[in-house]
Amino acid sequence: MSGSVTYLLDFEKPLAALQEELERLKKLSEENKVPVTEELEAIKIKIKKTKREIYAHLTPWQKVKLARHPRRPYALDYIRGIFENFQELHGDRRFMDDQALIGGVAYLQQQPVMVLGQQKGRDLKENVRRNFGCPNPEGYRKALRLMQLAEQFSLPVVSFIDTPGAYPGIGSEERHIAEAIAVNLREMSALKTPVVAIVIGEGGSGGALGIGVADRVFVFENAYYSVISPEGCAAILWKDATKAPDAAAVLKMSAADLKQLGVIDGILKEPLGGAHTDPKACIKTVKNLLEEKIPILMRLPIETLLQQRYEKFRRMGVFEEA
Hints:
The chain has 322 residues and is of the alpha/beta class. The protein is 48% helix and 15% strand.
């Protein structure tokens, strides 16, 4: 990760005001050589209390905002922090190399793995190159090519999900984005090698699910995983994109809701304030998780692995037969 641009969310303003007051008091004390130890300590206590109050009671929409935070660690941050000797592989062998979806071979300790991830940019130039983390059909076809390569060599697959959705542009539709995602869903469901998926930020629509059919799925506590973005849902149901906060609440897209509904296998804790406040801690959390889960999955017979994957997705959803 690079840079240290301050980015303030609306619900963090009370915290920012207290921090400014603390800095002002420190400066005043230094300039006038006046000790203000008690006052400084009182503000620090208030900052800690306010921080706990804010982040312990986040609404679903506030969590969406944290999931989209521009300083949040992205897929490449996790890949570089967790794995060794990452060798990126390019292209879908049909049309082009989609840089919104990256992948390649790496090592987790002594275990070779295939790593996939949706990658956003840190600035406008990189975001244009990465298409703001929205893959075209070629991205999903590249991902499938790499997953099939992993299957051939018995490599476990690790995918980092972080996209608002697949790219809905004319060219993407002409080259059959829906078909590319649908093929991935079908092929991943029968992939003869373990797959672990981690939602590190946004998990929007089929764009997320295109690399998300996995034996184990984990979501960071301030990430989201949803059939549609809150804005898209609001535009359809209310014909008003400003209803996005209401949509976020009813979509049950937060990690806690997903776990309760049985959509995911676990929630990954974030530092107080969000993943961007301590990326190294989040990277360590994922590394520990993968080092625990991958050996367990690798020991399962392939027939057992596929049966458990099938049953996992069959259990999702509630329905009645008339």
